[in-house]
Amino acid sequence: MKQFSVVPTIVQFEECKQFCEEFQIGKGDLLFMSKSSYSFFEPYVKEAVVIFRGNYGSGEPSDEMVEKIYQDIKDIPYERVIAIGGGSVLDVAKLFALKQFSPVIDLFDRKIELQKEKKLILVPTTCGTGSEVTNISILELKVRNTKMGLAVEELFADYAVLIPELLNDLSMHFFATSSIDALIHSIESYTSPKANEFTQMFSLKAIQMILSGYKEIAKNGEEARKPLLGDFLMASTYAGIAFGNAGCAAVHAMSYPLGAAYHVAHGEANYAIFTQVYKTYQEMNPNGRIKVLNEFLAEILECDANEVYVEIETLLNQILPKKPLHEYGVTEEDLITFTETVMTKQTRLMNNNYIELSEEKVLGIYKALY
Protein backbone atom coordinates (compact mmCIF):
# COMPACT_ATOMS: atom_id res chain seq x y z
CA MET A 1 0.00 0.00 0.00
CA LYS A 2 1.41 3.38 -1.05
CA GLN A 3 2.53 5.42 1.95
CA PHE A 4 4.41 8.39 0.57
CA SER A 5 6.05 9.76 -2.56
CA VAL A 6 7.59 12.96 -3.88
CA VAL A 7 7.48 12.69 -7.67
CA PRO A 8 9.02 15.92 -9.02
CA THR A 9 12.72 16.50 -8.72
CA ILE A 10 13.01 19.62 -6.54
CA VAL A 11 15.61 22.17 -7.64
CA GLN A 12 16.56 25.45 -5.97
CA PHE A 13 18.14 28.56 -7.46
CA GLU A 14 18.81 31.97 -5.94
CA GLU A 15 18.09 33.83 -9.18
CA CYS A 16 15.97 33.36 -12.32
CA LYS A 17 19.02 33.77 -14.57
CA GLN A 18 20.58 30.62 -13.10
CA PHE A 19 17.40 28.65 -13.73
CA CYS A 20 17.11 29.80 -17.37
CA GLU A 21 20.71 28.94 -18.09
CA GLU A 22 20.60 25.55 -16.36
CA PHE A 23 17.38 24.51 -18.12
CA GLN A 24 18.34 26.16 -21.44
CA ILE A 25 14.91 27.69 -21.99
CA GLY A 26 14.21 28.54 -25.62
CA LYS A 27 12.84 27.01 -28.80
CA GLY A 28 10.39 24.17 -28.18
CA ASP A 29 9.31 25.53 -24.80
CA LEU A 30 5.79 26.73 -23.99
CA LEU A 31 5.94 29.20 -21.11
CA PHE A 32 2.99 30.17 -18.93
CA MET A 33 3.45 33.22 -16.72
CA SER A 34 2.05 36.57 -15.67
CA LYS A 35 3.28 39.81 -17.23
CA SER A 36 4.63 40.85 -13.83
CA SER A 37 6.94 37.80 -13.78
CA TYR A 38 8.13 38.30 -17.35
CA SER A 39 10.63 41.00 -16.41
CA PHE A 40 12.68 38.41 -14.53
CA PHE A 41 12.90 36.17 -17.61
CA GLU A 42 12.70 38.42 -20.69
CA PRO A 43 16.45 38.41 -21.51
CA TYR A 44 16.65 34.61 -21.40
CA VAL A 45 13.53 33.24 -23.13
CA LYS A 46 13.51 34.98 -26.51
CA GLU A 47 12.84 31.86 -28.62
CA ALA A 48 10.18 30.33 -26.36
CA VAL A 49 6.44 30.69 -26.90
CA VAL A 50 5.10 32.78 -24.01
CA ILE A 51 1.48 32.66 -22.84
CA PHE A 52 0.43 35.46 -20.51
CA ARG A 53 -2.30 34.16 -18.25
CA GLY A 54 -3.81 37.64 -17.84
CA ASN A 55 -4.63 37.81 -21.54
CA TYR A 56 -7.27 35.14 -20.97
CA GLY A 57 -9.21 36.71 -18.12
CA SER A 58 -8.82 37.49 -14.44
CA GLY A 59 -9.91 35.62 -11.32
CA GLU A 60 -9.72 31.91 -10.68
CA PRO A 61 -8.64 29.62 -13.55
CA SER A 62 -11.55 28.08 -15.44
CA ASP A 63 -12.43 25.61 -18.16
CA GLU A 64 -13.21 28.54 -20.47
CA MET A 65 -9.72 29.97 -19.92
CA VAL A 66 -8.06 26.66 -20.79
CA GLU A 67 -10.14 26.28 -23.93
CA LYS A 68 -9.21 29.79 -25.13
CA ILE A 69 -5.50 29.15 -24.62
CA TYR A 70 -5.81 25.79 -26.35
CA GLN A 71 -7.32 27.41 -29.44
CA ASP A 72 -4.36 29.79 -29.63
CA ILE A 73 -1.59 27.18 -29.28
CA LYS A 74 -3.07 23.97 -30.72
CA ASP A 75 -1.05 24.29 -33.94
CA ILE A 76 2.22 25.29 -32.23
CA PRO A 77 4.70 22.45 -31.62
CA TYR A 78 6.31 22.34 -28.18
CA GLU A 79 8.26 19.79 -26.15
CA ARG A 80 8.23 21.26 -22.65
CA VAL A 81 5.67 23.15 -20.60
CA ILE A 82 7.23 25.62 -18.17
CA ALA A 83 4.87 27.41 -15.80
CA ILE A 84 6.00 30.36 -13.67
CA GLY A 85 3.34 31.76 -11.39
CA GLY A 86 0.83 31.27 -8.64
CA GLY A 87 -1.52 28.35 -8.31
CA SER A 88 -3.82 29.48 -11.10
CA VAL A 89 -0.97 29.58 -13.61
CA LEU A 90 0.45 26.23 -12.50
CA ASP A 91 -2.92 24.49 -12.43
CA VAL A 92 -3.75 25.60 -15.98
CA ALA A 93 -0.32 24.76 -17.35
CA LYS A 94 -0.38 21.19 -16.00
CA LEU A 95 -3.13 20.29 -18.45
CA PHE A 96 -1.01 21.35 -21.43
CA ALA A 97 1.46 18.56 -20.69
CA LEU A 98 -1.26 16.02 -21.51
CA LYS A 99 -1.71 14.54 -24.96
CA GLN A 100 -5.40 15.53 -24.99
CA PHE A 101 -7.26 17.80 -22.57
CA SER A 102 -10.01 19.42 -24.62
CA PRO A 103 -12.95 19.52 -24.10
CA VAL A 104 -11.91 20.25 -20.52
CA ILE A 105 -15.25 19.17 -19.06
CA ASP A 106 -14.71 15.72 -20.61
CA LEU A 107 -11.26 15.57 -19.07
CA PHE A 108 -12.64 16.26 -15.58
CA ASP A 109 -15.41 13.69 -16.20
CA ARG A 110 -12.68 11.15 -17.12
CA LYS A 111 -14.06 10.71 -20.63
CA ILE A 112 -10.63 11.43 -22.13
CA GLU A 113 -7.75 9.00 -21.79
CA LEU A 114 -5.07 10.56 -19.60
CA GLN A 115 -1.63 10.52 -21.19
CA LYS A 116 1.25 12.80 -20.28
CA GLU A 117 3.11 13.78 -23.43
CA LYS A 118 5.30 16.79 -22.56
CA LYS A 119 7.93 17.52 -19.94
CA LEU A 120 6.49 19.71 -17.17
CA ILE A 121 8.48 22.24 -15.12
CA LEU A 122 6.69 24.26 -12.42
CA VAL A 123 8.07 27.39 -10.76
CA PRO A 124 5.94 28.97 -7.98
CA THR A 125 5.87 32.75 -7.52
CA THR A 126 3.75 32.65 -4.35
CA CYS A 127 4.16 30.84 -1.06
CA GLY A 128 0.87 29.01 -0.85
CA THR A 129 -0.47 26.50 -3.31
CA GLY A 130 2.22 23.83 -3.22
CA SER A 131 0.97 23.04 -6.72
CA GLU A 132 4.54 22.53 -7.93
CA VAL A 133 4.73 19.20 -6.08
CA THR A 134 1.13 17.97 -6.39
CA ASN A 135 -0.78 16.08 -9.06
CA ILE A 136 -3.86 18.28 -8.78
CA SER A 137 -5.34 20.84 -11.16
CA ILE A 138 -8.24 22.87 -9.80
CA LEU A 139 -10.49 24.79 -12.16
CA GLU A 140 -13.75 26.65 -11.97
CA LEU A 141 -16.08 24.70 -14.24
CA LYS A 142 -18.29 27.50 -15.52
CA VAL A 143 -20.92 25.17 -16.92
CA ARG A 144 -21.45 23.71 -13.43
CA ASN A 145 -20.86 26.87 -11.38
CA THR A 146 -18.39 25.17 -9.05
CA LYS A 147 -14.70 24.44 -8.61
CA MET A 148 -13.42 20.91 -9.05
CA GLY A 149 -10.05 19.23 -8.79
CA LEU A 150 -8.55 16.68 -11.12
CA ALA A 151 -6.00 14.57 -9.23
CA VAL A 152 -4.09 12.07 -11.39
CA GLU A 153 -0.49 10.86 -11.60
CA GLU A 154 -0.15 12.33 -15.10
CA LEU A 155 -0.27 15.87 -13.69
CA PHE A 156 2.90 15.59 -11.64
CA ALA A 157 5.71 17.88 -12.76
CA ASP A 158 9.08 16.52 -13.77
CA TYR A 159 10.77 19.39 -11.94
CA ALA A 160 9.61 21.73 -9.17
CA VAL A 161 11.87 24.79 -9.16
CA LEU A 162 12.12 27.08 -6.13
CA ILE A 163 13.48 30.62 -6.69
CA PRO A 164 12.96 32.96 -3.69
CA GLU A 165 13.79 35.99 -5.88
CA LEU A 166 10.37 35.63 -7.52
CA LEU A 167 8.59 36.43 -4.25
CA ASN A 168 10.31 39.78 -3.70
CA ASP A 169 7.52 41.79 -5.35
CA LEU A 170 4.67 39.83 -3.76
CA SER A 171 2.25 42.29 -2.12
CA MET A 172 1.20 41.82 1.47
CA HIS A 173 -2.30 40.80 0.38
CA PHE A 174 -1.10 38.07 -1.99
CA PHE A 175 1.51 36.96 0.53
CA ALA A 176 -1.24 36.64 3.14
CA THR A 177 -3.77 34.76 1.00
CA SER A 178 -1.18 32.35 -0.37
CA SER A 179 0.62 31.59 2.88
CA ILE A 180 -2.66 31.07 4.77
CA ASP A 181 -3.58 28.57 2.06
CA ALA A 182 -0.32 26.73 2.78
CA LEU A 183 -1.05 26.75 6.51
CA ILE A 184 -4.45 25.19 5.90
CA HIS A 185 -2.91 22.61 3.55
CA SER A 186 -0.58 21.56 6.33
CA ILE A 187 -3.29 21.42 9.01
CA GLU A 188 -5.88 19.57 6.90
CA SER A 189 -3.31 17.04 5.71
CA TYR A 190 -2.23 16.43 9.31
CA THR A 191 -5.74 15.43 10.41
CA SER A 192 -6.57 13.51 7.20
CA PRO A 193 -7.23 9.78 7.65
CA LYS A 194 -4.67 9.27 4.85
CA ALA A 195 -1.92 10.93 6.91
CA ASN A 196 1.04 8.92 8.16
CA GLU A 197 4.33 9.63 9.91
CA PHE A 198 5.96 10.81 6.69
CA THR A 199 3.24 13.29 5.72
CA GLN A 200 2.83 14.51 9.29
CA MET A 201 6.52 15.35 9.49
CA PHE A 202 6.12 17.73 6.55
CA SER A 203 2.80 19.07 7.89
CA LEU A 204 4.22 19.95 11.29
CA LYS A 205 7.34 21.57 9.88
CA ALA A 206 5.22 23.74 7.56
CA ILE A 207 2.89 24.73 10.41
CA GLN A 208 5.83 25.68 12.63
CA MET A 209 7.55 27.75 9.94
CA ILE A 210 4.41 29.62 8.88
CA LEU A 211 3.07 30.42 12.35
CA SER A 212 6.51 31.46 13.60
CA GLY A 213 6.80 33.76 10.61
CA TYR A 214 3.36 35.23 11.29
CA LYS A 215 4.33 35.96 14.87
CA GLU A 216 7.38 37.86 13.62
CA ILE A 217 5.24 39.88 11.17
CA ALA A 218 2.59 40.60 13.81
CA LYS A 219 5.30 41.88 16.12
CA ASN A 220 7.38 43.91 13.66
CA GLY A 221 5.05 44.85 10.79
CA GLU A 222 4.52 43.88 7.16
CA GLU A 223 8.11 44.50 6.06
CA ALA A 224 9.28 41.80 8.47
CA ARG A 225 8.04 39.25 5.93
CA LYS A 226 10.77 40.17 3.40
CA PRO A 227 13.70 38.26 4.99
CA LEU A 228 11.36 35.31 5.61
CA LEU A 229 10.11 34.82 2.03
CA GLY A 230 12.50 31.93 1.37
CA ASP A 231 11.25 30.18 4.49
CA PHE A 232 7.62 30.70 3.48
CA LEU A 233 8.34 29.34 -0.02
CA MET A 234 9.92 26.24 1.49
CA ALA A 235 7.04 25.84 3.95
CA SER A 236 4.57 26.00 1.09
CA THR A 237 6.41 23.19 -0.68
CA TYR A 238 6.51 21.14 2.53
CA ALA A 239 2.75 21.63 2.88
CA GLY A 240 2.29 20.68 -0.78
CA ILE A 241 4.19 17.44 -0.22
CA ALA A 242 2.02 16.70 2.81
CA PHE A 243 -1.37 17.34 1.23
CA GLY A 244 -0.26 15.87 -2.10
CA ASN A 245 0.00 12.56 -0.25
CA ALA A 246 -2.66 12.88 2.48
CA GLY A 247 -5.15 15.25 0.88
CA CYS A 248 -7.11 18.31 1.95
CA ALA A 249 -10.63 18.12 3.31
CA ALA A 250 -13.74 20.07 4.38
CA VAL A 251 -12.12 23.51 4.58
CA HIS A 252 -11.18 23.37 0.91
CA ALA A 253 -14.41 21.64 -0.08
CA MET A 254 -16.51 24.31 1.62
CA SER A 255 -14.43 27.20 0.29
CA TYR A 256 -14.83 26.22 -3.36
CA PRO A 257 -18.48 27.31 -3.75
CA LEU A 258 -17.63 30.65 -2.13
CA GLY A 259 -14.69 31.18 -4.47
CA ALA A 260 -16.67 30.16 -7.56
CA ALA A 261 -19.81 32.18 -6.80
CA TYR A 262 -18.22 35.37 -5.45
CA HIS A 263 -14.69 35.26 -6.90
CA VAL A 264 -13.02 35.27 -3.50
CA ALA A 265 -9.29 34.54 -3.63
CA HIS A 266 -8.64 30.89 -2.82
CA GLY A 267 -6.59 31.45 0.36
CA GLU A 268 -9.03 34.06 1.64
CA ALA A 269 -11.99 31.75 1.00
CA ASN A 270 -10.19 28.99 2.89
CA TYR A 271 -9.55 31.27 5.84
CA ALA A 272 -13.22 32.29 5.92
CA ILE A 273 -14.09 28.62 6.53
CA PHE A 274 -11.07 27.26 8.40
CA THR A 275 -11.46 27.85 12.13
CA GLN A 276 -15.18 27.02 12.30
CA VAL A 277 -14.54 23.62 10.70
CA TYR A 278 -11.86 22.86 13.28
CA LYS A 279 -13.98 24.11 16.16
CA THR A 280 -16.65 21.69 14.93
CA TYR A 281 -14.15 18.84 14.73
CA GLN A 282 -13.01 19.69 18.25
CA GLU A 283 -16.58 19.50 19.59
CA MET A 284 -17.28 16.20 17.82
CA ASN A 285 -14.10 14.30 18.70
CA PRO A 286 -11.56 16.14 20.88
CA ASN A 287 -9.49 13.06 21.74
CA GLY A 288 -8.26 11.85 18.36
CA ARG A 289 -5.45 13.16 16.19
CA ILE A 290 -6.71 16.71 16.67
CA LYS A 291 -5.61 16.56 20.31
CA VAL A 292 -1.97 16.11 19.28
CA LEU A 293 -2.34 18.87 16.69
CA ASN A 294 -3.84 21.23 19.26
CA GLU A 295 -0.99 20.61 21.69
CA PHE A 296 1.52 21.36 18.93
CA LEU A 297 -0.32 24.57 17.98
CA ALA A 298 -0.62 25.60 21.63
CA GLU A 299 3.14 25.41 22.09
CA ILE A 300 3.75 27.69 19.10
CA LEU A 301 0.94 30.09 20.01
CA GLU A 302 1.80 30.03 23.72
CA CYS A 303 -1.75 29.35 24.83
CA ASP A 304 -3.93 26.62 26.32
CA ALA A 305 -4.69 23.73 23.93
CA ASN A 306 -8.42 24.38 24.27
CA GLU A 307 -7.97 27.93 22.98
CA VAL A 308 -5.85 27.30 19.89
CA TYR A 309 -8.53 28.13 17.30
CA VAL A 310 -9.35 31.40 19.03
CA GLU A 311 -5.66 32.30 19.27
CA ILE A 312 -4.82 31.23 15.73
CA GLU A 313 -7.63 33.44 14.43
CA THR A 314 -6.34 36.36 16.49
CA LEU A 315 -2.90 35.91 14.92
CA LEU A 316 -4.19 35.38 11.38
CA ASN A 317 -6.40 38.45 11.61
CA GLN A 318 -3.21 40.51 11.86
CA ILE A 319 -2.10 39.00 8.56
CA LEU A 320 -5.48 38.93 6.75
CA PRO A 321 -8.66 40.20 8.47
CA LYS A 322 -11.41 37.60 8.41
CA LYS A 323 -14.85 38.54 7.05
CA PRO A 324 -18.26 36.98 7.70
CA LEU A 325 -19.76 35.34 4.62
CA HIS A 326 -22.46 37.97 4.15
CA GLU A 327 -19.80 40.60 3.51
CA TYR A 328 -18.87 38.76 0.30
CA GLY A 329 -22.48 39.00 -0.87
CA VAL A 330 -23.46 35.50 0.24
CA THR A 331 -27.19 35.08 0.90
CA GLU A 332 -28.94 32.67 3.25
CA GLU A 333 -30.25 30.81 0.18
CA ASP A 334 -26.62 30.41 -0.95
CA LEU A 335 -25.82 28.50 2.23
CA ILE A 336 -28.22 25.74 1.22
CA THR A 337 -26.88 25.67 -2.35
CA PHE A 338 -23.28 25.65 -1.12
CA THR A 339 -24.06 22.73 1.21
CA GLU A 340 -25.63 20.70 -1.57
CA THR A 341 -22.63 21.36 -3.80
CA VAL A 342 -20.18 20.28 -1.10
CA MET A 343 -22.05 17.08 -0.33
CA THR A 344 -22.50 16.06 -3.98
CA LYS A 345 -19.53 17.53 -5.88
CA GLN A 346 -16.70 17.54 -3.33
CA THR A 347 -16.66 13.95 -2.08
CA ARG A 348 -12.98 13.61 -3.11
CA LEU A 349 -12.13 16.15 -0.42
CA MET A 350 -14.82 15.31 2.13
CA ASN A 351 -13.49 11.75 2.30
CA ASN A 352 -10.38 13.23 3.95
CA ASN A 353 -12.23 14.85 6.86
CA TYR A 354 -10.90 14.29 10.36
CA ILE A 355 -14.38 13.07 11.24
CA GLU A 356 -17.39 12.62 8.98
CA LEU A 357 -19.49 15.75 8.57
CA SER A 358 -23.17 15.34 7.79
CA GLU A 359 -25.11 17.69 5.54
CA GLU A 360 -26.62 19.19 8.70
CA LYS A 361 -23.15 19.84 10.17
CA VAL A 362 -21.89 21.45 6.95
CA LEU A 363 -24.91 23.75 6.81
CA GLY A 364 -24.40 24.57 10.48
CA ILE A 365 -20.79 25.61 9.83
CA TYR A 366 -21.89 27.88 6.99
CA LYS A 367 -24.60 29.42 9.18
CA ALA A 368 -22.15 30.07 11.99
CA LEU A 369 -19.88 31.90 9.51
CA TYR A 370 -22.67 33.87 7.86
Tell me the layout of helices and strands:
Elements: E1 9-12, H1 16-23, E2 29-33, H2 35-41, E3 49-52, H3 63-73, E4 80-85, H4 87-95, H5 104-108, E5 119-124, E6 136-141, E7 146-151, E8 159-162, H6 172-191, H7 197-220, H8 229-246, H9 250-262, H10 266-284, H11 289-301, H12 308-316, H13 332-345, H14 347-350, H15 359-369
Parallel strand pairs: 1-8, 2-3, 2-4, 4-5, 5-8
Antiparallel strand pairs: 6-7
What tags apply to this protein structure?
370 residues, alpha/beta, Dehydroquinate synthase-like, alpha domain, two-stranded antiparallel sheet, 15 helices
Polypeptide structure, described:
There is one protein chain. The chain is α/β, with parallel strands linked by helices and 370 residues long. The chain has 2 domains: 9-167, Rossmann fold (3-Layer(aba) Sandwich), CATH 3.40.50; 172-369, Dehydroquinate synthase-like, alpha domain. It contains 15 helices and 8 strands. The protein has helices at residues 16-23, 35-41, 63-73, 87-95, 104-108, 172-191, 197-220, 229-246, 250-262, 266-284, 289-301, 308-316, 332-345, 347-350, 359-369; strands at residues 9-12, 29-33, 49-52, 80-85, 119-124, 136-141, 146-151, 159-162. The strands form 2 sheets. A 6-stranded parallel β-sheet has the order 1-8-5-4-2-3, with helices on both faces. Strand 2 (29-33), helix 2 and strand 3 form a beta-alpha-beta unit. Helix 6 (172-191) runs parallel beside helix 8 and helix 9 packs across helix 13. The radius of gyration is 20 Å and the shape is globular. The termini are far apart. 49% of the residues are buried. The model has no long low-confidence stretch (mean pLDDT 95).
